[in-house]
Backbone:
């Protein structure tokens, strides 16, 4: 199996925060990730189906990262790191995956079949293949807006952003510690 690597870049707001959405309550918030954490997020969802091609040490680190659960700042429910995608981010990632599939199908199925069958010959029984290459889409995602209030998380020495009008308890995304706003 060959490895397919695709860089997926996501917009950050002016402060470097990355938008997330709770898979349970559906509320959006932002997290200030470290550079390597952002790289892991894009790597996991862009080509995690190719994990068996990775070196054992990389695979162990990745599996450990995938097992980690994080807390929604609003409802405090835990979910795996790869469950916090917004609907727009999922659609964006899917365009990359669809383009990879189109490339594979075009290269390994459509083009070879055109060459193999070509045009029908004048034999009594002939097969003709007519097919067009699959088109690829241009990936696009909305630029990140500068919304929400920054909230310091002293428990983990990190920062998140929550809705401006949120007045209830805020939970640390990393450890779940509750804070009154």
Residues:
């Amino acid at each position: 199996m060959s490895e397919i690597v695709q860089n997926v870049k996501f917009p950050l707001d002016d402060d470097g925060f990355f938008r997330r959405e709770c898979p349970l309550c559906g509320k959006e918030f932002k997290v200030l990730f470290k550079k390597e954490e952002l790289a892991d997020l894009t790597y996991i969802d862009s080509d995690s189906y190719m994990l068996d091609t990775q070196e054992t040490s990389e695979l162990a680190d990745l599996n450990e990262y995938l097992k980690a659960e994080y807390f929604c700042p609003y409802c405090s429910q835990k979910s795996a790191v790869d469950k916090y995608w917004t609907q727009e981010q999922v659609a964006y990632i899917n365009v990359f995956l669809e383009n990879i599939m189109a490339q594979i199908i075009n290269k390994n199925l459509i083009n070879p079949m055109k060459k193999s069958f070509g045009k029908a010959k004048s034999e009594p029984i002939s097969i003709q293949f007519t097919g067009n290459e699959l088109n690829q889409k241009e990936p696009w995602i909305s630029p990140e807006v500068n919304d929400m209030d920054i909230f310091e998380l002293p428990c983990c020495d990190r920062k998140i952003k929550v809705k401006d009008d949120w007045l209830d308890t805020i939970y640390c995304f990393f450890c779940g510690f509750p804070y009154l706003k």
Notes: The chain has one domain: 18-56+64-132+144-179. The chain has a mean pLDDT of 80.
